[in-house]
Amino acid sequence: MKIVLDTNVLLTSISERSSIHSIFSGFLDEGYELCVTTDILIEYEEIITRHLGSNVASAVLQVIENAPNVKWITRYYVWRLIEADPDDNKFVDCAIAANATYIVSEDRHFGILQQIPYPKLNVIKAKVFQQLLKDQEGV
């Protein structure tokens, strides 16, 4: 399963006390393939540093950069599908280029993607993805 994680989902899932920590631990356990671009990693680092400090950001980025279940994506086309928040387009473009199974996000701006017939993207909430991971473990 190829996944693009919105920054806020990643940020929230890092803490072991988080109700969605199984998303981050599922990544660590190689339960899914995380698709990233350089732009996404830069945003991850910026936001994690702002909220949790540079040491945590460095550690998380090091884990992501060295994980065997990370798919590095080169974006060749910019789709500009989310006009309300152009910064979100980096996740959309990555998902399209990677042929990702899901974008996992709580951001309301991604809702517009449900109205766009092509390219078809599946955006799910963190709790839904968490349940998918749990169901996958039971297989």
TrEMBL record:
<feature type="domain" description="PIN">
    <location>
        <begin position="1"/>
        <end position="112"/>
    </location>
</feature>
<dbReference type="Pfam" id="PF13470">
    <property type="entry name" value="PIN_3"/>
</dbReference>
<dbReference type="InterPro" id="IPR002850">
    <property type="entry name" value="PIN_toxin-like"/>
</dbReference>
<dbReference type="InterPro" id="IPR002716">
    <property type="entry name" value="PIN_dom"/>
</dbReference>
<dbReference type="InterPro" id="IPR029060">
    <property type="entry name" value="PIN-like_dom_sf"/>
</dbReference>
<protein>
    <recommendedName>
        <fullName>PIN domain-containing protein</fullName>
    </recommendedName>
</protein>
